[in-house]
Automatic annotation (TrEMBL):
UniProt keyword Repeat present: yes
Repeat region (PPR), residues: 225-260, 261-295, 296-330, 331-365, 366-400, 401-435, 436-470, 471-505, 506-540, 541-575, 576-610, 611-645, 646-680
Record's keyword terms, sorted: Repeat
UniProt xrefs under Gene3D superfamilies: Tetratricopeptide repeat domain
GO cellular component annotations of the record: chloroplast
Keyword Membrane: no
The gene coding this protein: LOC120261196
Matching InterPro entries: PPR_rpt, TPR-like_helical_dom_sf
Name listed for the protein in its UniProt record: LOW QUALITY PROTEIN: pentatricopeptide repeat-containing protein At1g05670, mitochondrial-like
Amino acid sequence: MFLCLGNAKKRLPLFSSFPFSSSSIDRITTKLRPFPDYSPRKPTINDADLVRDLTTALKQRRSEPLRRILAPFAQRFRPDHLLWAFSYLRSDLPLALSLLHWCRSRRHPIPAEALAIASHLSVASRNLEFALQLLREGLQSHSRFVEQVIYTYKHWSSNPCVFDLLFRAFVDAGKLSESRSLFFHLLTYGITISTDSCNALLSRLPVDDIQAAFTEFPESGLRWNVVSYNILIHSLCQVRKLEEAHGFLVKMEEKDGVLPDVITYSTLIDGYCKSGELQEALKLFSEMSSKGLNPNSFTYNSLITLLCHDGNVVEAERLFMQMLSYGIAPDAAVYTSLINGYSKKGNLFAMHRLFTEMKTAGHAPDAVTYTVLISGFAQMGKMLEANEMFVEMLSKGLTPDEVTYSALIAGYCKEGKMEKAFRLHNEMLHGGLLPNVVTYTTLCDGLCKQGQVEAANELLHEMCGKGLVLNVCTFNSLINGLCKAGNMDQAVKIMRDMEAAGLAPDIYTYTTLMDAYCKSHDMDQARLLLKEMLDKGLQPNVVTFNVLMNGFCVLGMLEDGKMLLKWMLEKNIRPNATTYNTLMKHYSIDKNMKATSETYKGMLALGLMPDENTYNILITGHCKSRNMKEACYYYSEMVSKGFNLRKSSYNALIKLLFRKKKLQEATRLFEEMRAMKFVADKEVYSIFIDVNYNEKNVQAVLELCDEVVEKCYVEEK
């Protein structure tokens, strides 16, 4: 495992200092050298008498305190006396080690030979932790300590475990090259380091060195175990070499007969999940189960995190429930992942439910959990809940970081509460936290949206003064704010300043400006920006074209919109449902249902699925054109797909049904509309007031009159 043989210098830089070659290893396998015989120097008569008296006293008075026993010998005792004392105490290991402790407590430097002998004695007494401590001390304080351990081995121990510990001491000290050298040096004596100790080295090596060791190590006679493979697979996953990692999963079982365990699969599943490769992760998850390996909390958390990131929270919670059914207790990380997934979906109820379940299960939410909740509430505009979570977080003694503060600041900026946002900004500074570029960008955006362009510029200067570098996002935020404030000249100037600062405007920059020009009905300037964008080699995205499409359609330039769609298709730029919906909406407004239908068919031919907006456009348009059959067909298809009517669609469909004498269907839709809390228009109310009046249903007439006054007249005022 440790030394790369033959072409070591090419493959493992750490091997370059190793003195052996492959030919020397060949000789090792055929001819082993014996361990040396131990022959310590002999003591003088005085030293021998001192050691004999001292060890006799230790044996006879072992119940007394060590300091009292050894006090008469303290002045004459030298560290060298340990070597001879160990010979007398060899059969009494506790006393031998007690003497060593006493010597070390007097801060005497312990000879390398004595430390080596003490290590052997500790191993013999099964005090492995103390043996490892002594070996570490020996390596640190004596340059030729390894030779002393080998020299004293045959006489004092003959337990090869001492070399495993010596090897680990090298690894713990970060002396990886020396540990490899030791491994192959010990092979010459017929000693092989255990696989478990080799794994300690593997876990410290970079991935290329681990792979090289895996290729060459079998030449030493040692074989890797499942822990070894897990270390290699983990390292490969860390550097995103997932195919290679998967290859070793196959190899370990098929070629080496090593069975993967739950850690092997979970590590690789996590690697695929972090790379966003959900299908590969799910295949491994299924394979793992088919082999009788039960997933653990880490396995589930990896999958749940990716599913939540991809917006598939329903599937994530299905796995969560499966996890519970198998008796696997979710940890705080699993709950936090699910809360984060639901926060992105804006599901307030699910966030509260999971947070409560998490605490009931005995998991204390950490700073990450609270930050996820705060961020979710802030994005939904629920600043009261976000602030409550922030206060609770502080009360638990948890420290908010830049992400926590930035989430709150973004929420207050979104609401236009700049005073509260800046109060948090100042609180960050007093707490020793430095606002990052995201924080400042958010504040600038909030100020610009309120028309406080000068204040935003001052903030940017403060940002630069703190050593933070303005990035494209910062400029884009400022440009977006200026556009929303209607200050187009200043927005364009900022884009030119951005270019002068060496930052290239991106698609978002141009799209933001084009959107502002389209909304101000200046399509010529929008076209010029599109041309400039293309001249610079920037490829517009579908959002850019949707902005232009909306601009053309709002101005009634439907032929231009149609040409734009054709150009997109010719350039292999795939439109989305919004592109088609915009064009269909304005054809429908013009009561050109033939063009609306043709556009819809083109959308289907491209393989795009209609969304809720698509169906509402079609239903409203056909209702206004009195196409009963088509309107009902699209309504039926819409309901089957789980979509809902908008307020305007309800009104249009109810009126058409009434005109076509479909009073029962119209009444059902009217009641459904009221249950959905939509307000019908005055004409619809008039229809049902007249119907109930003709049926002499006075109570219903009075209720509808009250409702129409409250909702149609009072709300208008």
